[in-house]
Write a structure and sequence with these properties.
Strand 10, helix 15 and strand 11 form a beta-alpha-beta unit. The protein is 45% helix and 12% strand. The protein is extended and about 115 Å long. The N and C termini lie far apart (106 Å). The chain contains 22 helices and 14 strands. The strands form 2 sheets. The protein has a 7-stranded parallel β-sheet with strand order 3-4-2-5-6-1-7, sandwiched between helices. Among the domains are: 209 residues, 3-Layer(aba) Sandwich (Rossmann fold); 152 residues, 3-Layer(aba) Sandwich (Rossmann fold). The relative contact order is 0.08. The chain is an alpha/beta fold and 525 residues long. Helix 3 runs antiparallel to helix 5, helix 5 packs parallel to helix 6 and helix 6 packs across helix 7.
């Protein structure tokens, strides 16, 4: 077995079984890489990038970025991807998933870099958010600095004409969000008929954001003969169904416990009602040492409100969400990375593509309704081997979300009050407000000062109003002018009864006459 693992199958002419087993020319390389992985892990050393089958140009680019050893998912995924296998990568946030597909993608394309003629799109990476697309493009540019490959990030919120010009000049790798890519497909400004490698990053988030139909439409425009790499933090039923429809015999790679938070993160849950959350957030930020803080809000309006309140209290804060333009979001992220802002307030969707090293604390201002979102949130701190803290505010109405998180993670968390925080309401009691208002109110004037003297009403009988006069003087057939000038005195009760009887009788006779006329009309018709 070890002989087969080390020696290529094509050289084993005397072993028919070996030829039938290793029909793929890369199969022996896969076994050899697996043996090397076992050897290095057994010895307690990390395998270097040079042993993963990557080109010298890529290894040089990796070392130039400061990385010396791959992570676990990179060690396991890269050899399979280099061999051309379809891959499902399932790992926690911050474990190096991006490099696990960027490096084999660049390794494949670097072997066929066009020196003359127009470049064609050979690799397509789909991401759910703009920030994530920009992050992947930065990785491609950084790792492929010595490969002469060209890439572009295609997403909404920026000028589309500039993207069209870049695409017409020719690129090798396109990193795009589904919405903007479909816009280019409809305009016929991009051609996907030559794509050889398709990557779906954060596939679970694609479903959460409603992009699944767009993804299926895009996959239909890509050649069926391709390599497909899919990476996701969680493996739901929807993701598995997508895998079955777009991948061929994929290799599943799971790193660590699936759907479990990073163990290096200290998680704390504090009970606080909704109207006291801002007060508690300010208390924590002012009384604890926090280098860089990422605060999650459930809504865009809430993110703006939190950021304004923090700025008002002397804290350097900035908000990022879907309503901000792409330029505003990029400036906010750049300022947070450079230390201009100590606190970044974000929504779940906007923070999906945030990749900032050194985040010391993640604060869930609103308890996430879904346990998967909780794992994505706290995964922004404690990346790689660093430790981090995650604080979650839980109101009375949000305790049901905490139970779902505990069930999802398989662990019970202690819900406690924050030590030293005054849980009293900021507003004063009702009786205190009433007393203060009574003291500040001017003394009430005397009765004769409040109202001016009014003449007493006359004892004479008031004249009847016009409506009463008209009803009393009404007679069928009598003209309005005559009724107005009628000088009859008010009728006695007995006379009024006689008048009403006459009116009723006249009305009956009129109705009978109307019926007869209708009958005649129908007969004529």
């Amino acid at each position: 077995m070890l002989d087969f693992a080390v020696c290529p199958a094509s050289k084993r002419r005397d072993a028919k079984d070996a030829q039938s087993t290793f029909h793929n020319p890369h199969s022996s390389y896969i076994l050899r890489s697996a043996f090397q992985n076992f050897f290095y892990s057994f010895k307690g050393f990390s395998m270097p990038f040079s042993k993963l089958g990557l080109s010298d140009q890529l290894v040089q680019g990796i070392l130039a970025t400061g990385y010396t050893a791959p992570t676990e998912i990179q060690t396991r995924a890269i050899p399979l991807a280099v061999a051309g296998r379809d891959i499902i990568g399932c790992a926690q946030t911050g474990t190096g998933k991006t490099a696990a597909f960027v490096l084999p993608l660049l390794n494949h394309l670097s072997k066929h870099v066009p020196h003359h003629g127009t470049r064609r799109v050979k690799a397509l990476v789909l991401t759910p958010t703009r920030e994530l697309a920009q992050q992947v493009d930065d990785f491609v540019t950084s790792y492929g600095r010595f490969t002469q490959l060209q890439s572009i990030a295609v997403f909404g919120g920026v000028n589309m004409d500039n993207q069209i010009k870049r695409l017409r000049r020719g690129v090798d790798v396109v990193i795009a969000t589904p919405g903007r890519l479909i816009d280019h497909l409809n305009r016929k400004t991009i051609d996907l008929s030559h794509v050889e490698v398709l990557v779906l990053d954060e596939a679970d988030r694609m479903f959460d954001m409603g992009f699944i139909n767009d993804v299926r439409l895009i996959v239909g425009r890509v050649p069926a003969k391709r390599q497909t790499l899919l990476f996701s933090a969680t493996m739901s039923k929807e993701v598995r169904a997508l895998v079955a429809s777009i991948q061929h015999n994929p290799e599943l790679i799971e790193v660590g416990e699936q759907q479990r938070p990073v163990e290096a993160i200290r998680q704390q849950f504090f009970t606080v009602e909704q109207d006291l959350k801002l007060k508690l957030l300010l208390y924590i930020l002012k009384n604890e040492t926090m280098d860089s803080v990422l605060v999650f809000s459930r809504t865009k309006h809430g993110a703006d409100k939190i950021s304004r309140r923090l700025e008002k209290n002397g804290l350097k804060s900035v908000a990022i969400h879907a309503n901000r333009t792409q330029a505003q979001r990029q400036r906010a992220l750049a300022g947070f990375k450079q230390g201009q802002f100590n606190v970044l307030v974000a929504t779940d969707i906007a923070a999906r593509g945030i990749d900032v090293e050194g985040i010391s604390h993640v604060i869930n201002y609103d308890t996430p309704a879904f346990a998967e979102d909780y794992l994505h949130r706290i995964g922004r701190t404690g990346r790689a081997t660093l430790s981090g803290d995650a604080i979650t505010f839980v109101s009375g109405q949000e305790r049901k979300y905490l139970k779902s998180i505990e069930y999802f993670v398989g662990k019970r968390y202690e819900l406690k009050r924050y030590p030293g925080f005054d849980y009293a309401r900021e507003e004063a009691p009702v009786h205190a407000v009433t007393a203060e208002g009574a003291e500040a109110k001017a003394p009430s004037p005397h009765r004769h000062e409040r109202h001016t003297a009014r003449p007493r009403p006359s004892t004479k009988r008031r004249p009847e109003n016009r409506g009463q006069r008209d009803r009393q003087s009404y007679r069928p057939g009598k003209k309005r002018e005559d009724r107005r000038t009628s000088t009859e005195s008010p009728a006695a009760p007995a006379k009024k009864d006689n008048d009403w009887r006459k009116l009723i009788e006249e009305g009956k006779s009129q109705r009978e006459g109307f019926r007869k006329r209708l009958k005649k009309l129908f007969k004529r018709g």
